[in-house]
Write a structure and sequence with these properties.
single chain; alpha+beta; 4-stranded mixed beta sheet; 4-stranded antiparallel beta sheet; binds coenzyme a persulfide
Length: about 375
């Protein structure tokens, strides 16, 4: 068994860490304050090639797969969870198009979503279709006269929805069949009838704008059907399996940084005449934080390895996300506690990291949904 990264992966890790330190850390507090999407930084991510991870080079991507995504997202999450979320969620759309798209769809959309610097989004959730993703009500009824689907309805809580120019949207092409009548469509934000509604005010990852989308008779050409009619729910579930590894990486990155900050602070902070790192209570906190974070890392990389080697990974993606997310909350909480009053203040990044970490227990499937997925895999449905 070999846990080491390849030379290319080591290089990617270095480049991602430098990018995070130079470009993301300086804006992290600002994004948290202003709640504005970092347009320029996203373009810089595209210039370096991060936005094309997992997409073949012939379509403008930078190749690699789940492991490369984990490496980049983890490094980003150390310094700026908003930016890690933006990258991780953006990658869902181009990767889905790369996997299910026709040659024409790939040629048309992938260069834009990779080196072109345009943002992608994945729009599944609706007010009545959150954990119960099969209850989507948005419809896309085929019009044989014009060879278009007519999209009506709306989505909520769509990460990047207000900024994305190319979106993979899930809608019922045959409402009588329920989730088996769901299909995936590639929609552009310039199509008439597409509009952005409410932009949410969130507790964390404020720089990753989260929006409501409204579709009023949006005419989507038939050629923009992704995969086959009725295949939408499976495409969504498979895309989410991969996306959950991305969330695992976000949770892993913020936890790793929290451990490092806690260790550093505990060596610097003197109370009762000695650094608090000399106190066994602090040492035991750090031992727990480091151990659980290393365990989270192992599960995240194992899930990525399974995906990259073409093996089933639904259960492991759910496990890695569930575990890493719980750990991120645990570790950011203890790191904040070790910082005492300073941890609670906005001069230090801990309170932001603590708030940012919470989302990893909720989006791309709640922890409770992951327990459903895991228990079904372990115990049978
Ligand atoms: N990969 C491929 N196919 C999958 C799949 C997966 N990971 N999960 C389910 N499917 C398939 C099933 O095999 C089934 O197909 P068949 O009828 O051909 O056997 C079909 O999809 C329906 O599956 P299931 O009966 O398990 O659907 P449920 O309605 O019970 O929902 C859960 C399953 C709960 C796992 C799903 O709704 C889910 O993941 N919910 C959370 C949604 C989420 O993450 N939302 C966040 C939105 S993006 S921020």
């Amino acid at each position: 068994m070999d846990f080491s990264l390849t030379r290319e992966q080591e290089l990617l890790k270095k480049v991602a860490a430098q990018f995070a330190e130079n470009e993301l850390e300086p804006i992290a507090a600002e994004l948290d304050k202003t709640h504005v999407f970092p347009v320029d930084n996203f373009k810089k991510m595209a210039e370096v090639g991060f936005t094309g991870i997992g997409v073949p080079r012939e379509y403008g991507g930078t190749g690699g797969g789940a492991t490369e995504k984990v490496i980049a997202v983890t490094e980003f999450a150390r310094k700026c969870m908003s930016s890690a979320a933006i990258l991780s969620i953006h990658l869902i759309a181009p990767q889905a198009i790369a996997k299910y798209g026709t040659k024409e769809q790939k040629e048309k959309y992938l260069p834009r979503l990779t080196k072109g610097g345009e943002l992608g989004a994945f729009a599944l959730t609706e007010p009545n279709a959150g954990s119960d993703a099969g209850s989507v009500q948005t419809t896309a009824i085929f019009d044989p006269e014009t060879n278009e689907y007519v999209l009506n309805g709306g989505k909520c809580f769509i990460s990047g929805g207000s900024r994305a120019s190319v979106l993979v949207i899930f809608a019922l092409t045959d409402p009588s069949k329920g989730l088996k009548g769901m299909s995936a469509l590639i929609v552009e934000n310039t199509m008439p009838g597409f509009s952005v509604g409410k932009i949410e005010e969130k507790m964390g990852i404020a720089g990753s704008e989260t929006a409501e989308l409204i579709f009023e008779d949006v005419r989507v050409p038939a050629e923009n059907l992704l995969g086959k009619e009725g295949q939408g729910f499976k495409i969504a579930m498979q895309a989410l399996d991969g996306a959950r590894i991305g969330v695992g990486a976000q949770a892993l990155g913020v936890a790793k940084e929290a451990v490092d900050l806690a260790v550093k602070y505990s060596h610097e902070r003197v109370q009762f005449g000695k650094p608090i790192s000399a106190l066994q209570g602090i040492q035991w906190y750090v031992a727990d934080m480091a151990t659980k974070t290393e365990a989270a890392e192992t599960l995240v990389y194992k899930a990525a390895w399974l995906e990259d080697t073409g093996k089933p990974f639904t259960k492991e993606a759910a496990m890695c996300k569930l575990n890493a997310a719980e750990n991120a909350r645990f570790v950011t909480n203890l790191a904040l506690q070790i910082h005492g009053g300073y941890g609670f203040m906005k001069d230090y990044p801990l309170e932001r990291m603590y708030r940012d970490a919470k989302i990893t227990e909720i989006y791309e499937g709640t922890s409770e949904i992951h327990k459903v997925v895991i228990s079904r895999a372990v115990m049978g449905k």
